[in-house]
UniProtKB/TrEMBL annotation:
Matching Gene3D superfamilies: Leucine-rich Repeat Variant
Taxonomic lineage from the root: Eukaryota, Viridiplantae, Streptophyta, Embryophyta, Tracheophyta
Residues covered by region (Disordered): 113-140
Compositional bias annotation for Basic and acidic residues: 118-140
Protein name stated in the entry: Uncharacterized protein
Family: Belongs to the SAAL1 family.
Ranges annotated as spanning the membrane: none
PANTHER family: PROTEIN SAAL1, SERUM AMYLOID A
Entry keyword set: Nucleus
Signal peptide coordinates: none
Length: 535
């Protein structure tokens, strides 16, 4: 039956699978030498020796006056500085240097990190709370490490450049920097570069095969800096979307890691971080193989309650004109619920949360829907999917006239998207299927007739823009058309009942009755009958 189909839209996540080079903060770039245009003039080729020189610049060396007597990390830092001093151009020496210290312990905790530029500590989400830039410091002071790192970050978006970098031990160098650096900016750039590398399928395998790298990336989730966390989630998302997703998923499986993920998403005030982290969850839910590993543990640790809390928070901000950027966050959250509703056996998770469904319905009842159009479309698909497995909820809303009005007002927003439009008509067919016109009150009949008559132009415009001939309920007719036919047939029966009832009672006994309204009702009834051949 048409209304029993789960709806899955192709969503465009705010995380794009296309390659991106992300450079944060104010930064003056050096002119890159030895660049020549390719024949097609759409890409550039960089002198390989220049790339190698940039990689050398990234060797960890951010500690002054090391004292080998202080700690294991100091020993490691001393080794780094000495190795850098003696470094020659031989690639084997770079690799050997990395292997000498990459497994030594380092006491690296988010709470003890400082920004390498000015030495100040950035608490989780402080950038937004305090209204200060993500990275502060004297913009005139140029850091060679940052300069080189940002250039490599840009170049890593190009597949051939990225492969050359990895061939020349860039992963080893980045892993070393992540292990010993106390600079949040260094950590952010390292994660950003690896995030770009992870977008190239072939390099994704090499990232996974680099001993200790995945575990080190996952540990960055325990930092308290929103920019580093944003890049960590972007990298994890790319890893889960790649062909080596299982290795990333298994590294994320421990409860303390998943609890940390949920805590970050539930507590950050940073919209960029919230967007990247919800994209991460969306990747888990949308990939069947990944969700098999991670989704159930996340649900058991409180994912439904987290989503409900986020949705309630974002809906409460809709009337605040100073927070218009939050619309994209709302879209991400609804996209996550949409994916969850289309996942086998998880619609019950949404229904079991007492807050989620009322929140989704509250969104659909909003009088102004243009600015939240994408979210409303997601809400339509969510509701259609829930009705497939949880048919009893239709009875709760079949006579909620403000809800029905809200649904009808969304019709123009879904009219051009086949999946969303199909979901809309499936909902309407299901809801009107719950209405027994012979058993409801005269007042309810009148409300049904008046509501649909006043919104009849929306119904007619949609149907006329999607021509259909002799609609019936044949299985050979596409799903959306079938649901539309069911809806029109049910609506015609309700309108016919109202017309017959009204003619049998005095006009003064009918509240708010007027000729114009009755004319609209008669016109709509005729329109429905014309399409479904009702006599």
């Amino acid at each position: 039956m048409a209304t029993d189909t789960v709806h899955r839209r192709r969503r465009r996540s705010s995380f794009s699978s296309s390659l991106r080079s992300l450079v944060r903060g104010t930064h003056s770039f050096s002119v890159i030498p030895s660049i020549r245009l390719c024949e097609n003039e759409t890409s550039t080729t960089v002198d390989p020796s220049y790339i190698i020189s940039l990689i050398r610049q990234l060797l960890p060396r951010d500690v002054e006056k090391p004292d080998v007597s202080k700690s294991p990390s100091s020993v490691k830092e001393t080794m780094v500085m000495q190795a850098h001093t003696d470094l020659c151009s031989n690639g084997d020496m770079i690799k050997g240097y990395i292997e000498n210290f990459q497994h030594l312990p380092v006491d690296k905790k988010g709470s003890s990190f400082t920004n390498g530029d000015d030495g100040t500590h950035q608490e989780f989400g402080d950038e937004e709370r305090a209204g200060i830039p993500e990275h502060t410091g004297d913009s005139e002071i140029k850091d060679p490490w940052e300069d080189s790192g940002c250039i490599l970050w840009d170049l890593s978006a190009n597949k051939s450049h990225a492969e050359f970098m990895v061939d020349n031990f860039l992963l080893d160098v980045l892993l070393a920097s992540l292990l010993v650096s106390r600079s949040l900016r260094v950590t952010e750039i390292c994660l950003g570069i690896i995030g770009n590398l992870a977008c190239h399928d072939d390099l994704g395998r090499r990232i996974v095969s680099k001993s200790g790298l995945i575990e080190t990336v996952v540990q960055q989730l325990f930092l308290d800096d929103s920019t580093c966390l944003s890049e960590t989630f972007r990298l994890l998302t790319a890893g889960l979307q790649g062909n080596k997703f299982a290795s990333w998923a298994e590294a994320l499986l421990p409860d303390q890691v998943l609890l940390r993920v949920l805590w970050i998403i539930g507590n950050t005030l940073n919209t960029v971080l919230l967007g990247k982290s919800t994209d991460f969850l969306l990747t888990i839910v949308s990939n069947q193989e990944v969700s098999t590993i991670l989704l159930q543990p996340l649900v058991e640790l409180g994912l439904p309650n987290l989503i409900a809390g986020l949705l309630a928070s974002e809906l409460s901000k809709l009337e605040d004109e100073t927070k218009l950027e939050r619309f994209s966050v709302l879209d991400s959250i609804l996209g996550l619920v949409e994916a969850l509703s289309a996942t086998d056996n998880y619609s019950k998770v949404i229904i079991s949360n007492e807050e989620l469904l009322p929140l989704i319905c509250a969104l659909l009842k909003l009088p102004e829907k243009i600015e939240v159009a994408n979210s409303c479309v997601s809400a339509i698909v969510i509701l259609a999917n829930l009705l497939v497995d949880e048919q009893h909820i239709a009875s709760k809303f079949s006579q909620d006239f403000s809800f029905l009005q809200g649904l009808l007002e969304i019709l123009p927003l879904v009219s051009e998207d086949p999946q969303s439009r199909s979901a809309f008509w499936c909902i309407m067919a299901r809801l009107l299927g719950e209405v027994q016109e012979d058993d409801i009150s005269i007042s309810a009949l009148q409300q049904f007739a008046s509501l649909f008559a006043n919104k009849s132009h929306l119904i007619e415009e949609d149907i006329e823009s999607h021509p259909m001939e002799d609609l019936d309920e044949s299985p050979s007719i596409p799903e959306g058309h079938n649901a539309t036919a069911i809806f029109l047939r049910r609506l015609a029966s309700i309108l016919k009942k109202w017309v017959s009832v009204k003619s049998a009672i005095p006009e003064k006994g009918v509240a708010d009755s007027n000729e114009d309204n009755e004319s609209k009702i008669q016109r709509l009834l005729h329109y429905c009958c014309k399409y479904v051949r009702l006599k």
